[in-house]
């Protein structure tokens, strides 16, 4: 094994640690709501605003930082993103009021999408073209492992020590990532467009928008179920309290496996893998309501639903293919789209529940969203076939 190959593996590992930190703070914050709400005297709506502030930071930060960072090297960008992320989590740990926690969570979320976008491009540049999806999957592996290990660990720390130490721990991981990236990453690698206008050219490409819509809509189904999973386990399945973290761990295991398998398959046949992953989402979400009466059957289908998370990996590769010079913006927007899905799915599922639908029906709401994602995929493919010479750069 060459020294360069070893160095590249350590760079990708460092990026995965950053992904683990981001995944832990994003998902664990939901489990820490009771602790920081009680400590700071927040109402339920205020606690919800704190969670939403992070997602808003992701959606706004991804395009802004991608465009403004067009002239900088990947090493500088990733180091800066992790530094801002660390600062946001330090401030979260020190927050003493609703406003300070709200602003610090927004700051922590601001570099989230841009980090994953630039990290995906850097990781892809370190491996042969036919292994791009696998390289990004290794970066995203940190986030998926966080759903299995980081979130339960954070929930335990928050319950028995303090929710503040969770954010402090995440800040430490971010600082380690920033240091390793600065020391190991190549100093001359750039992510794509050389200026702001080159990056903004991504917004003129129909295939970029279609790919983002596939993620924003198709991925919403997964979040429609995930958001109400705990409530379903308690009120419908009537599972024992000890079963709840186990079922959530099943989701994380499925997402980790789906991420790795979709990446390997995507490097062989990208478009069929995208379609297949969405079909898995449709089938598993359709079956979900039929399994909510039994915790074992529910756990099995939750693993399959989590496996649908592999869609994010192949979508990232698809965006690399259709974005032209605007690689950074397109890659970062992928995570903005996924966070939009994180808002869309729960909102539609909540709307259905408000109108009297039982909790298991969140699966069918998610199934409908996944079907829409598949239809958007077919539109994208047909458009590409009808414009074989310009499909990757079709101007609006």
From TrEMBL:
* Predominant location category: membrane
List UniProt keywords, sorted A-Z. Answer: Cell membrane, Membrane, Transmembrane, Transmembrane helix
- TM annotation in the entry: 12-31, 51-70, 77-95, 101-123, 135-157, 163-185, 206-230, 242-262, 269-290, 296-315, 336-355, 361-379
Q: How does it sit in the membrane?
A: Multi-pass membrane protein
One Gene Ontology cellular component: plasma membrane
Location of this chain's protein in the cell: Cell membrane
| Protein name stated in the entry | MFS transporter
Organism the protein comes from: Halioxenophilus aromaticivorans
């Amino acid at each position: 094994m060459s020294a360069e190959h070893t160095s590249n593996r350590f760079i990708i590992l460092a990026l995965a640690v950053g992904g683990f930190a981001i995944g832990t703070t994003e998902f664990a914050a939901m489990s820490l709501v009771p602790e920081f709400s009680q400590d700071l005297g927040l109402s339920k709506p205020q606690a919800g605003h704190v969670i939403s502030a992070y997602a808003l930071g992701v959606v706004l930060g991804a395009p802004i930082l991608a465009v403004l960072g067009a002239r900088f090297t990947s090493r500088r960008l990733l180091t800066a993103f992790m530094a801002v992320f660390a600062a946001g989590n330090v401030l979260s740990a020190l927050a003493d009021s609703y406003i300070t926690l709200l602003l610090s969570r927004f700051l922590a979320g601001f570099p989230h999408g841009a980090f994953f976008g630039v990290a995906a491009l850097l990781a892809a540049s370190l491996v042969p073209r036919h292994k791009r999806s696998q390289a990004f999957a290794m970066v995203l592996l940190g986030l998926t492992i966080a759903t299995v290990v980081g979130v339960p660990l954070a929930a335990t720390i928050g319950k028995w020590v303090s929710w503040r130490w969770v954010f402090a721990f995440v800040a430490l991981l971010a600082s380690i990532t920033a240091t390793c990236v600065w020391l190991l990453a190549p100093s001359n690698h750039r992510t794509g467009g050389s200026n702001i206008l080159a990056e903004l050219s991504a917004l003129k490409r129909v295939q970029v928008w279609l790919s983002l819509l596939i993620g924003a809509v198709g991925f919403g189904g997964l979040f429609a179920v995930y958001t109400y999973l705990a409530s379903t386990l308690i009120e419908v399945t009537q599972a024992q309290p000890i079963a709840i973290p186990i079922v959530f761990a099943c989701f994380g295991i499925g997402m980790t496996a789906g991420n790795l398998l979709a990446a390997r398959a995507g490097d062989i046949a990208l478009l069929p893998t995208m379609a297949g992953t969405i079909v898995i989402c449709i089938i598993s979400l359709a079956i979900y309501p039929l399994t909510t009466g039994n915790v074992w059957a529910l756990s099995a289908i939750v693993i399959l639903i989590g496996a649908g998370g592999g869609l994010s990996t192949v979508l990232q590769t698809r965006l690399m293919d259709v974005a032209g010079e605007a690689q950074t913006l397109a890659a970062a927007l992928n995570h903005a789209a996924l966070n939009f899905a994180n808002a869309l799915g729960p909102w539609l599922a909540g709307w259905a529940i408000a109108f009297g639908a039982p909790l298991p029906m969140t699966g069918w709401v998610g199934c409908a969203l996944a079907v829409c994602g598949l239809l958007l995929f077919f539109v994208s493919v047909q458009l590409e076939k009808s414009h074989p010479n310009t499909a990757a750069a079709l101007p609006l």
